[in-house]
Amino acid sequence: MLNFVLLIFIYSGIYALMAMGQNVITGYVGLLSLCQAGFFAIGSYATAILSVTYGWNFWLTIPIAGVLAALSGVLIGLPTLRLKGDYLAIATLGFGEIVRNILNNWDSLTRGPMGIQRIPMATVFGLKISPYEKWGFLVMVWIFVLVGYLFFRHLARSRMGRALEAIREDEIAASSMGINTTKYKVWAFALGAFAAGVAGSLQAVFTLSVSPGTFTFMVSIMVLCMVVLGGMGNFLAVILGAFLIQFISYFPQLVGLSNIIPPQFKQVLFGLILVVMMIWRPQGILGRAPRMTLNPKKKQPKDSDGGEK
Q1: In Å, how far are 24, 26, 104 from 227, measured between CA atoms?
Q2: Closest among 72, 78, 59 to 103, alpha carbons compared
Q3: Can you give the residue ranges of every domain in the chain?
C-alpha cells in the first residue's frame, strides 16, 4: 500500500511539471494546446537515446531534453499563432500525433514500437536513485516541482507574465499598447514545452524504458484536466489538480476494483470532470491566482516650497 501511495505522489510530481507548462500556454495566454504529450515524448526519448546509445549521464540529458522540447514548441508555435480555439486545438493535437508516429516508425533511432529499454538510473555523488526504492526518487521529483513552481511564480509576477495575461484578456488591445504578441506567444509555447521535456526526462529514468504507446492523446487531455480542475492561471492550483487526477486515475487499483472497472472508465471520468468543472466552477478548485500589484507608489519628497518634486 505504501509503495502504491508513493507511486501516486511520484507521478503527481512528474505530471505537475507538465501541468505548469500547460498553464503557461492555456492559463496565461489563453491558447488551447493539446500537444503536451508530444513534448513529453521528446523529452523522454532524448534522455533514453542519449543515455543508452551514447552513454550520457542523466543530469546532462535533462537540459538537452528540455531544449529539444522547447525548440519543438517554437516550431509548432510559429505556424499556429493565427489559429484560435478549436482550430488551434486540432493543429496541436496533430503535432502530438505526428511526434508519436515518428517515434513509432524511426526504427534506427527509436527502435520503433519496441521502444528503448535498460535506461541507466540517475545517480547523485555515485549513489543510484532507484525507482524501485521510491523515497529517493520521490524527493528528486518534488525538488524539480519546487524549482519549477518558484520559476513560474516569478515569471507570473514579472513583466512577461503581465504581458501574457494582457494577451489573454484582449490581444488587439495588448498589441496596440506595444506588446509583441507573437514573441510572447512563442515564448509561452517554448516554456511550456521545456517543462514537459524535463518531465519526460524524469519519466524515462523512473520507468527505465520508453515506448511510443505511452504518449497518447489521453496524456494531453489528462494534463489539461489538471489545469482546469485546479484553476487556470494558478501554478499552485495545477499542482493540486495533478495530484487529484493521479489519485482518481489510480483509485480503482488502490481499492482493489481494477478488475471490475474497465480501463475506458478513466477517459469517461476525465471528460466528466471537464464538463462538471465548466458548469459548476469554471475557475477551478482554487481559482485564478490574484493579480500581483506593481510596487506601491512611493510618496514623493517635498521641495522647499512644500510641493512634491
Answers
A1: 10, 8, 29
A2: 72
A3: 2-216
